[in-house]
Amino acid sequence: MDQTIYRSHVLICTGTGCVSSGSRDIKVKLEDELAKYDLTNEVKIVETGCHGFCEKGPIMIVYPEGVFYCQVKPEDVEEIVEEHLLKGRIVDRLLFKEPLTEESIPSYKQIDFYKKQKRIVLSNCGRIDPENIDEYIAIGGYEAAGKAITEMTPQEVIDEVKESGLRGRGGGGFPTGLKWQFTHDAEGDKKYIICNADEGDPGAFMDRSVLEGDPHRVIEGMIIAAYAIGADEGYVYVRAEYPLAIKRLEKAIAQAEEYGLLGEDLFGSGFNFKLHIKKGAGAFVCGEETALMASIEGKRGMPRPRPPYPAQKGLWGKPTNINNVETYANVPYIIKEGAKAFNSIGTENSKGTKVFALTGKINNTGLVEVPMGITLREIIFDIGGGLTKGKKFKAVQTGGPSGGCIPAEYLDLPIDYDSLKEVGAMMGSGGMVVMDEGTCMVDVARFFLNFTQSESCGKCTPCREGTKRMLEILNRICAGEGKEGDIDLLENLAHHIKDTALCGLGQTAPNPVLSTIRYFRDEYEAHVQDKKCPAGVCQGLAAAYVIDEAVCVGCGMCAKNCPVDAISGKPKESYRIDPDLCISCGACAEKCPVDAISQG
Amino acid sequence: MACECGNKKESLDKYLAPLREVLKNYEKEEKYLIPILQEAQDEYGYLPEEVLKEIASYLDLSLSQVYGVVTFYTQFHLEPRGKNIIRVCMGTACHVRGGADVLAAVKDALGIENGETTKDLKFTLETVACIGACGLAPVIMINDDTHGRLTPEKIPGILASYK
Ligand SMILES: Cc1cc2nc3c(=O)[nH]c(=O)nc-3n(C[C@H](O)[C@H](O)[C@H](O)COP(=O)(O)O)c2cc1C
Ligand code: FES
User: Fold this and answer.
1) How far apart are CA A150 and CA A321, in angstroms?
2) ipTM field
3) Smallest CA–CA separation between A600 and chain B, in Å?
4) A318 located within any domain
5) What is d(CA A537, CA A543) in angstroms, rounded to the nearest whole number?
6) Is A455 in the pocket of ligand 1 (CB under 6 A)?
7) Gap from A201 CA to chain B (nearest CA, Å)
8) Rounded Cα distance, A311 and A561, in Å
9) I want to staple A183 with a disulfide (CB 3.0 to 4.6 A). Which of A128, A311, A480, A505 is the partner?
């Protein structure tokens, strides 16, 4: 181990977000600069996982002060080294500025984005080097696994998890302790455990960040679960679209094997546990547990009816426990700190925290971990910094293609598994996409249905044919060819599909349509009856653009950029758009220097 | 005409040699079918029929079974593909932040549609549901690199860096 004592640590985020914003170049530059100023033995560079604040990446944090620099560019590195690391002066211009107050905030803990968060699953993400097992161990990692295996019986572990109230974070919210009990009680000498890291919901990247930022936490959770249910072999099923997560996990497993934390005779107890990685091959339905197991077996990833549940007949017909990444990542905390510490957080029936991926038309996009029971308003406005460009909030979509859109009237709803279900949405895996007035809700419904329709595996008719019919109707409505009765027909089909589809994919596919009809029926009616898209999104329906003659300066930019030559006029005089030719693409309005063009 | 069977067999052997190297690392069990297909595709760029036949016979599966798996998963391809794979995200976050315009810009720049490969075999264009970098929406992935916060104007420059 590295024994040098450093006076400063510089943490550079190397999560997917920050890497694509250029954090690797920053690291190289920082190494050069440190060498130039002869600081290599005084300042240590640590590559960490995601801090969650991808919007402001690349992110750099300097300890011991905990100064948070954001959107750092290679050109800024010299200044940071010279001013901060050499002279101890904070570089003010690189600090984070609150969107509402413009105030610059030096320390990470004082930023609104982090202040209201409660980090359990993400507690190490951004704080440790995910590729170094020693760092995980140094902050108490693998203590929980040690405690479970050497001091507790499997039943005691299960009881602790039951008492904690932990529910599955993969979507359904099934009580985790109970699931473990079923697999524990199932007959059989061979049992498996699986970690579901398929994370296919568009708009979600929680599991990716945990695997990239703190892979050992997931491995530790799996070791504890395997011990509790009596499994000696496990699989992590990761999407192939996550190359960095796969690489970090491979490295973490190799290190854990080397330290004797995976393999034979863990902690001298005689308990063996072997962990494999299985790469997905690009099929959303493989996130469904029975399809996922078929895929691990090397078959087409099609779901099968349940029961029998995986706890009785899972992988290769053996009792199998399957949980989500985030579910496992909560387990070490519960075992180490006790069920009480965990169940003191949250609401009556939903304990602990939930990680959400906050995206869409919001200022602070990123990953946030909040206690269950927090309101949408706190997440979107206090943590998320409100909507971009000061636009008005219209709805937030939760639960991905299985979820629904929640309108402004529920902003003060304390969120947990049950409250979200009541308003027609779903916790799902934790994607949260914020939408403003410029988003058309019919288009959003169509978007999700298009997704589920193309991901339908085709095994059952309601899902294969039903979603196709629904999509046809939505396409028609968006193209301005909606018919009287279409909305009722959609609802009718939706209920049939929900009741008869084979797996969760089909059963939940109609949710985005039902929830948007429930809260935005007037928008559907505007499309069908008035042939108008109020948000101006649906191309077939968008109103033509018009030029305000009083404002037009006659520059001709609009006419130059019109793709269909719908704009006529002479330079220095006012221009005019022919409404019959206009295709409402908006290219003219975008280019107009004086904002004279709007949708009529 | 002289018989060329021997010749053909020789060239097929040569063609399949890299695959046989891959197969050496796997036992003959069905559960290795997907990992083998993944490695074979890394090797050949796509999955030609000869390769599928060889895999089927190695694992003692029928060709139709192998074919069934290949066509089920979007990751596998039966046609040759470009040197660089462009994946444009059509996920929710990217959708509400202008992913469609980015896709149009890529199509424009390369003159191909979704699922197609340029004639010079340099680029293949695909869409995906979510890359998991939604914080940077709209996003595209070229090979294993993620490019975020895109506007249509940035596309030609990015593509140029892959030529
Ligand atoms: C179509 C479909 C996709 C799913 N995708 C995922 C996924 O990506 N990740 C996940 O953890 N669970 C997913 N699930 C839920 C799993 O079937 C399963 O319930 C979950 O992994 C159980 O873990 P938990 O109890 O820890 O939540 C999906 C379910 C369906 C029906
Ligand atoms: S929606 Fe595009 S990266 Fe997630």
Assistant:
1) 22
2) 0.82
3) 22
4) yes
5) 10
6) no
7) 7
8) 62
9) A311
Alpha carbons A239 and B87: distance in angstroms, whole number: 15
Chain B neighbors of A433, CB-CB under 8 A:
92-93, 96
Domain of A44, in residue numbers: 8-115
**Closest CA in chain A for residue B72:** A300
**Same-domain check for residues A76 and A197:** no
> Do A260 and A402 reside in the same domain of the chain?
no
Residue nearest to atom 4 of ligand 1 (CA): A287
Residues A19 and A85 in one domain: yes
- Tell me, yes or no, whether A540 lies in a domain: no
Q: Consecutive 10-residue runs of chain A (600 residues): their mean pLDDT?
A: 79 85 90 93 90 86 90 93 92 86 83 89 92 95 97 98 96 94 96 95 87 96 98 95 91 97 95 96 91 96 92 96 98 97 96 93 90 95 89 92 93 94 88 89 92 91 96 93 94 96 93 96 94 82 79 88 84 84 76 81
Neighboring chain A residues of B35 at a CB cutoff of 8 Å: 278-279
Place of tokens 């009616």: A525
Contact status of B135 with chain A (Cβ, < 8 Å): yes
Angle at A379 between CA A394 and CA A422, to 5 degrees: 65
pTM of the model: 0.88
Which amino acid makes up residue A311?
A: A
The CATH number of the structural domain formed by B8-72 is 1.10.10
Architecture of the CATH domain B84-160:
3-Layer(aba) Sandwich (3.40)
Q: How far is B6 from chain A (nearest CA, A)?
A: 35
Which is nearest to A41 in space by CA: A68, A2, A78, A90? Answer: A2
Distance between Cα A501 and ligand 2 center (Å) = 27
Ligand 1: centre distance to CA A548 (Å): 52
Asked whether residue A455 falls in the same domain as residue A584, the answer is no
